[in-house]
TrEMBL record:
Its main location: cytoplasm. Interacts with EXOC2, EXOC4 and EXOC5; may be part of the exocyst. Pfam families: Sec6. Belongs to the SEC6 family. This is Exocyst complex component 3-like protein. One of its GO terms (biological process) is exocytosis. Keywords: Cytoplasmic vesicle, Exocytosis. It is found in: Cytoplasmic vesicle, Secretory vesicle. As part of the exocyst, may play a role in regulated exocytosis of insulin granules. GO terms for cellular component: exocyst; transport vesicle. Residues 1-23 are annotated as: Disordered.
Amino acid sequence: MGMSAEDERAASPRDEEWPEAEKAEKLARGAALKWASGVFYRPEKLEGLGHYRRRETQRNSSIQSRLKSTVQSYLEGVSAGLEQLRSAAQEVQSVCQDLGAARWALLDSADHFQGLQQMRELMEEHVQLASVVQVLPQIFSVHEVFSHILHLLHGQHLLEAHVELMMVEQVRDDILSQLHLRGLSSAQATVLSYFSGLQDLNESLAKQLWDIVGNSLRLVREDPVLFVTAVRIIEREEKIDDTLLLEATFLPPGRPKGWRQKFYQVLQDTITGAHFHAPCMDAEGPGLAKHLAALQKDIVSELRVVKDLMVQCVPAHYNILSVCTATFHQALTSHLQEILREDLDKQGLFLLLEWALRVYHSPEMMAHPDLLPEVDVSALDPLMSSELVDQTERRYVMKVKASVFEWMQRTLEVEFKEWFREEEPETDHQGFFQSALPAIVMQMLNENIQVASLITDSLQQKIYDMALEELEAFLGRLREALVQCGKEHQQDRAVPKYYISHLLAVLNNNLALSNSVSSLHPDTACREVPASLQAALDRMQKKATQLLLEELLLDLQPLCLQLPSRKWLSGSQLVSSMCEVIDKYAKDFSHVRKPVFTLLLAESELLVASQYLRALLQRKMVCKGREERGQLCHRLLQDATQLRELFCGLGLDRSQQSLEAVFALRELIYLKDPALLSLEVVGFITKYPDVSDEHISTLLDIRGDVSKEVRHVVLEMMAQHPQVLPEGYRPIFSTILVPVPELPFCLRKGKCA
């Protein structure tokens, strides 16, 4: 269905004006053709073509009619709009004509306006003169008003005085403002000179106000009216300051007064001066305790007055309770720092720490029921900084350390004197020797640690560390005193008279200290004794044990000097005498507690065994034959058995005894076939790895039947089986020195005959 030539001509201008319409029409036609070709593609669909044509014709007619109706309504609206525009244009033209006429009329009246300006200036001058005339009576009466204000101030009629003072200031400020606008600075100076009395009146009023504020805590209890009056005056002045600062056109002299800020300053200075600028108190404990107690009482009392009375006398925005609380807090902080600059003793330092860290925050002071919940110092900085607390704690620890050292030294001196008394040391209910030293030392240390726990955990830990250091140092001094006592005893064995008993008491004391040290630790779950302190305790025990063994050795040496000998070999009572000496010492050892008693038995047994072997090896006896060798082995067996039974009877197990070495040595001597010595020696050195070649050579000499070849084989065998001391092995032969045999002279390298 193509378009006619007229339609194309009619459409072409529109298409040129609206290219989108042409594009839309083409798309619509393309879509219609595509639809039609799809619908009528099959022959059976062509029968409905006529029906479709009629339906489309009706639809087009309907659309065209609606379009015509819509266009018609639009055209009618456009016509009405054009008519209104025509009418508005006529009215605008009329207004323009009227404005032109008015403009010419104004131009004609310009000369008359100049006359009006002069009249306006005259009117302004008249108004100013009228205002001046109006205030002239007030200006003339200024000095009279000054006198009246001064009289009111003397009578403490502060509100009335302040009202008149404000009135005079207003007059002065109005005049100065007018002069300021006109730039008449010289006239301003004259006015200021005329109103110079205002400055004195202001100062007089301010002085009375600050006196009232300075006594505010007393006045709110006795006469709150006077205090409220002062606050009202301060608030009036504060409002005037705020108004003038907002206008910012002219600021009269003396403004802003800032009396509210001055109120805070005076109140803070009053609080500080009343309690914290007192003469320096006694730095010792009692004086400081009284001072802190007075501060505590006064601060609680005055904060209670502020909370209950002063808060009701001032506006809420003053936050007067918070201001006073912060003032007390800051003043206390500075005051405590001043006190700490003094050379306080340990009691003073403790009082200060306890007061600042415990009392200050307790219900006895800032957490007092009468102050809560309004008073809250938790938001403020700590009364003492963590650095200052740590520094003060260290000073306290140093003072306590000096005191502990002094007490321990005194205790040591008393203990040293006790050793030389003509009496045995005291015994407990079980018969163990002891002295008061452990109880005194531990009580002193424990009390200091417990006292420190009342302050902070850090102070308790510092005191605990100090206590262990001092205890370790004390053990060192006690050991030195013990050594000194031993030296004096060596010079005269009768002094001290009960030397062994006191040594046993020292061992019991050392054990008591060792058992008590763990109880000092603040943490009950941690009971370990520091390694350095345990080493000091061990050294102390070792030294006391050594001195006891030296005593035992002195009594055994005369008997050991008789070993070996022909008399001993033939069956003397030498070992029986040794057993008597040992039994006597064992009875003394029974006065020490079990662990130390077992240790003393073991060390005594080792001493006896080593002395027996030393006597046998150093003063060697060469057997002349098998019979004498058998006699020697029999004597060794009897002696070793007797000694072993003695120590077993005293409570020392065989596995803990070193006398087994005597039995093993006897077996080497008793061996009948010297050719088997190499094997026996290997077994011997395996069991006793501290045996040297010299020891074995001496044993072979004692046998008296070992050839050079056998000796050489034995020594070679030892060289092939070097021994290493196992962990926990108790050396016995390494402490025994044997005479070095004289070596034959050799000219060249090789084996000497």
